[in-house]
Amino acid sequence: MAHIYEIANSVEYPYVDGRKRGNQVKFPNTPVFQTFNAPSRLEGDIFDLEISGTIPQEINGTFYRVQPDHRFPPVFEEDIHFSGDGSITAIQIQDGHADFKQRYVQTDKFKAEAAARKSLFGKYRNPYTDSESVKGVIRTVANTNITFWRGVLLASKEDGPPYALDPTTLETIGRYDFEGQVQSPTFTAHPKFDPNTGEMICFAYEAGGNGNDGSCDIVVYTIDANGKKTEEAWYKSPFYQG
């Protein structure tokens, strides 16, 4: 029987000429995936976090965070941090205590790769490097911003639609199109809000095609506090926005 050290020495680096080979779950030895940047790949709950100091009794509520967190090693060794799957953290603070919850955003991309148990999507915002098995699947990872809107959390990234999540459980509800009123394939990760009326001002670029075809179309929406779209204006950008 081979000694464990002999087996370890025979394990090959999982990237050849910059591309993943085999099904070994091992991330690249690049700064994007090591030390502080190493993916956590964590979904879970911690009840009553250990705290340094004291949380003032007046602070009650939930702090939400979204971040890129690769679920699987990337197809290409030199992948970048912004390709990581969207991961939502909720820290609920109540009466001096804090509870932790973390879940992935169950995007179309995430579910396709979870079923295959490996990465299927290639280089950042380049659908031509994807596996044939996922051609046409929405590529967004919803990892850039999270917004509270009319009872749900919207996790978003500029290259696709937002995804709605339950703010209590962090369960993904699904793609969000503002009750059918927003049909652009992309949506901003940085909507703005009128502090007096609650109106959302938002936009999408690469809005005229499928979100990956270099469309120069830009659309601007205004949506009132009751969720009704009140304005939609289309423009042509003088240059590609990707």
From TrEMBL:
Pfam families associated with the record: RPE65
Cofactor: Fe(2+)
UniProt: Fe cation binding residues: H190
Keywords: Dioxygenase, Iron, Metal-binding, Oxidoreductase
This protein's name: Lignostilbene-alpha,beta-dioxygenase isozyme I
Cofactor note: Binds 1 Fe(2+) ion per subunit.
Family annotation (InterPro entries): Carotenoid_Oase (IPR004294), Quinoprotein_ADH-like_sf (IPR011047)
UniProt KW Calcium keyword: no
Parts forming coiled coils: none
Family of the protein in this entry: Belongs to the carotenoid oxygenase family.
Gene Ontology MF terms: carotenoid dioxygenase activity; metal ion binding
PANTHER family: BETA-CAROTENE DIOXYGENASE (PTHR10543), CAROTENOID 9,10(9',10')-CLEAVAGE DIOXYGENASE 1 (PTHR10543:SF89)
Keyword presence, Metal-binding: yes
Xref: SUPFAM superfamilies: Quinoprotein alcohol dehydrogenase-like
GO biological process, one term: carotene catabolic process
